[in-house]
Amino acid sequence: MRRFPLRAAWWLPALLLGCAQPAPQREGHVTLQRQAAPGQALPGPAQAAPGPLRDDRGCLLPAPVVPKAPPPPHHLSGQLGLWVAEIDPVTLRPVRAVATNPDSVFPLASTYKQAVLWALLREVDAGRVQPGERFTVTRQNQSLGSYPFDGSDVRALSERMIHNSDNTATDILHRRAGLGAVQDVADRLGLCRTRLILPTKAWWVAQSGLSATFNGSGRWTGARGEEQRRIAALIDQDAQKYRADYVQRKLNDYFDHRRDDALDAQVYNLSTPYEFGTLVAQEFLRPDLSEASRRWQREVMGTGFGKSALTITQQGRVRYVGAKGGNGWQLLTYSGYVETTDGRHLVYVFMQRGADQSYTMPNTRRAFAWINAALNVVLGAPARTTALGSPAR
């Protein structure tokens, strides 16, 4: 495919703004108010073993009351969210955890791409996607930033999606798995405040004002279920009408002259630290994949950034880490699943929005200093006889 020159844009892997106000806190603990779930109930099929607790509509309950995370060792500006927990591998509930604003909504940035991998592998196991399928980069499917060679197969694209955070590879696989299949990753788990459905080019086209569907619909933000899937498909059809370099120019103008937090919150994929931590735990501990697909998942997720930044890695205490991060305009996200050498299962989710810095990658060291401080607390906490479960009321 001919390569179009694009103006360098460091915020390309990023997504969303839109954070709920944190609940009032008491000394040493995060006390959470019940958050309103989407209006449409999600299915809650019976599971072979207990899972995270849900309400009567099938929505995951708010995070349990846990000790407040230690303060960041180094200054981090903007709104911050953190969920760090040890997970019981049988119940998938946290047995030790610390948190800051775990039920506030944040942009996911490229962290969402691991959900595309999980949905894709479910389609592979179902026989609807063949691992040997190969793809060509076209005017329609090219997103922003670098992109893969023509003829790349599913495995190669999945590696670029996670290791390189390649937006075009992500969009090709997202569409191949199906927009609804990717959203279904959250819906099956009752993550009522998590949106995963839009490919990268689709949200950028909506954000820059190029989607007639998005501009003409007042129903998108509250859409769920089939209505959400129908509107998302139309927005994505709009996105495929435009060349990546043209979208890039329109986005440059948007960020330079008319950026709107409220608009950003409508277009990006998003979640809360606790909901996304629940997704990460399920993704690795109960993915419902074949052995071959689970091995593929673990190998590819093992190439995401995170392992080298963990203090416990330097201490020789880590057996495996699967991780993914993302960044964007004034936002930064990191998530990971960790298996320690003594058999413990950990998850961490860090989210930042509204940072003082437009380019947030230099905040990575500060973010992981906080993640490491929280992991140190969780790993040093005394064992509990029962898993955490009841949210604050």
Automatic annotation (TrEMBL):
<dbReference type="InterPro" id="IPR012338">
    <property type="entry name" value="Beta-lactam/transpept-like"/>
</dbReference>
<feature type="compositionally biased region" description="Low complexity">
    <location>
        <begin position="32"/>
        <end position="51"/>
    </location>
</feature>
<dbReference type="GO" id="GO:0008800">
    <property type="term" value="F:beta-lactamase activity"/>
</dbReference>
<dbReference type="InterPro" id="IPR045155">
    <property type="entry name" value="Beta-lactam_cat"/>
</dbReference>
<dbReference type="Pfam" id="PF13354">
    <property type="entry name" value="Beta-lactamase2"/>
</dbReference>
<keyword id="KW-0378">Hydrolase</keyword>
<dbReference type="GO" id="GO:0030655">
    <property type="term" value="P:beta-lactam antibiotic catabolic process"/>
</dbReference>
<feature type="domain" description="Beta-lactamase class A catalytic">
    <location>
        <begin position="98"/>
        <end position="281"/>
    </location>
</feature>
<dbReference type="GO" id="GO:0046677">
    <property type="term" value="P:response to antibiotic"/>
</dbReference>
<feature type="region of interest" description="Disordered">
    <location>
        <begin position="28"/>
        <end position="51"/>
    </location>
</feature>
<protein>
    <submittedName>
        <fullName>Serine hydrolase</fullName>
    </submittedName>
</protein>
<dbReference type="InterPro" id="IPR000871">
    <property type="entry name" value="Beta-lactam_class-A"/>
</dbReference>
